[in-house]
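The methods section describes the discrete structure representation at length, but only in general terms. Each protein is reduced to its one-letter sequence and a matching series of backbone shape codes. I believe one specimen quoted in the main text would settle the matter. An entry of this sort, consisting of the sequence and the corresponding backbone structure tokens, reads as follows.
***
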Amino acid sequence: MTVAGNILLSACVVISASAELPPGSHPVVVVGPLLGQSVEILNDDESSWCFTKGKWTWLWGNPEFSKTDVPCLLEGLRLAGWDRQTNLAIPKPRVKVRPKGGYLLDKKSGLDALAQVFGTEMLDGGNGNSHMGPRFRSLGYVEGESYIGHAYDWRLGVRDWQVSSFPFLLKVIENASRKYGKPVVLTGISMAGPYTHAFLSWTRSHDPDWPKRYIHAWVPIGAPLNGAVQALSAVISSALAVWSTEGDCPRCDPPKIAQPTTKDNLVDRLKGWFKGEAMDIADQVLKKTLWNWPSMYFMSTGLDYSTNPPTDPEVVTMINGETPPQCRAAGGADATGSKCGATQTRAGWQFDDASFLTPYQCAECYEASKFTSCATGYDVAGNAWTSTLCCKRHQCNAKSYRASELPTLLKKIGREDAASMMEYALSVGTTTDPGVPVHCVFSHNVQSFQKLSFHTSEDVMTEQAMITLDDGDGTVDANSLEVCTRWPSTVKVYRVPGVIHSGLLDVDQVIDIVEFVATNNEKKLRDWKEPAYSVLRASANTTIATKEQLLVSKDAGLMNLWV
């Protein structure tokens, strides 16, 4: 049985009306992001140290999470594989994962797992860093009735969601709409955007008019609608690896070399769970765990169908990815050419000088008599008792890969399942017009991953990526965030300067937008203008990018930001 098969929609019930909406308002459904949803794990393997004795254990998102929980968390979150025929994830035997609280249409459903993201009162009465929950409570919304959360298993892919959480979300929306007699407002941050887009496409495939009947508007916030280069870097190499400072930031003002300064990115969010001694355990295991999550490929950069013709972005460059044919040919009975950046020939003859080749060169070699000179264009690279190694240097050409070629790259480095997951992710892209009114919110002017470069030597790729930085929100690049600006269904685009990705939920001017959409305040929506960086209203200083994190930092006005 797949992970999806564990969901029992027969347990769903319609909530009876007990609270009225504010006049003229619509019910609001908030959708969870990647990583930002609490999940619990049921491990029924009695031989495992992580055996939960038939009980669900809250691990991801639990503030009491400890170092000793790391092995069980990783064991629980890792999938057993990928079914290339059905495009479904294969769960680990006797291990189940679900959003905290499960899939039930009761008051805690969804919001219990989203408490820290959307500011509900489910976690010790706290609001996390989000202003959304407190704002909607102040407007008269009731959590679980008119302000509803939708959580799901964020490790999975679109096909899994189609048979598990999409039917549940459909029921949540229909119940809320029928209860209040109005279509709902959908919103969410980060991967909630692509997830919701895929959901709308799924509903339309079954009933073309369903979105028009049940969706008043969609407010994606910081949505990586064409994935994120940062997620791609974790898929190809390692989420925990420190990237090289050899990359750059061409449009930075003042100019700078790329540095790992952004504080709200995939790397730092994961590192927050694995500190000290636990990091030693987590590094390699976590990398392999991430690699078998279909959602990571869904969140990687794909083709952009919001342009005509579709854009196929160049996202990965192998700096010495193309070895010239001369370096592959044998140069004599005992000597061959070399790989790029090698310190010896393919046959194992060590160069006298280990730096004979740069990382971007390979050698075409032959063995000569000790008493003869090397041919024109060849240099002495090695000496033996009776012979000399003569080599000619050749430039190793860079090989760039566009989004559509990522499956080819993954196959080249020996990851067949990853290539299959990437192929499927490319087939369910989320860049086409969604066909519902869209109010699109995103940040800009924060340095963000734009392109990846790696050193390669034919069959070996370094894990350390060289990053090119450009505009975005620190986690998602501008190319992906701006997809919604080209949709005919988009009512308005709302740009917010210098806010770090998930910090958008901590900015009052952003929550204003969701409120105005939900309460049908068209005048305030029309009048909304991009706020100055210096007047952003947020409660957490991790929300606003520092001067060093901005793309253009002059006249930043950092004083009196946090109120």
Notes: Residues 165-180 form the longest helix (16 residues). Residues 324-395 form one domain. Residues 319 and 398 are 4 Å apart (CA to CA).
